[in-house]
């Protein structure tokens, strides 16, 4: 999982910007950990927002 692929990472975060749970995404433990790391790196590089206010 690449932190620069924001289109793919957006599938794993909610509309509020939270990382979706394993039971929702269907990932195994290792892949969920990879997704979480990529999302966190992407947030730190300002490619994804930390939070999003959906109104």
From TrEMBL:
It comes from the Bacteria. Pfam families: Ribosomal_S18. The keyword Lipid biosynthesis does not apply. GO terms for molecular function: small ribosomal subunit rRNA binding; structural constituent of ribosome. One of its GO terms (biological process) is translation. Keywords: Ribonucleoprotein, Ribosomal protein, RNA-binding, rRNA-binding. InterPro entries: Ribosomal_bS18 (IPR001648), Ribosomal_bS18_sf (IPR036870). GO terms for cellular component: cytosolic small ribosomal subunit. The keyword Membrane does not apply. Part of the 30S ribosomal subunit. Forms a tight heterodimer with protein bS6. Belongs to the bacterial ribosomal protein bS18 family. Binds as a heterodimer with protein bS6 to the central domain of the 16S rRNA, where it helps stabilize the platform of the 30S subunit. This is Small ribosomal subunit protein bS18.
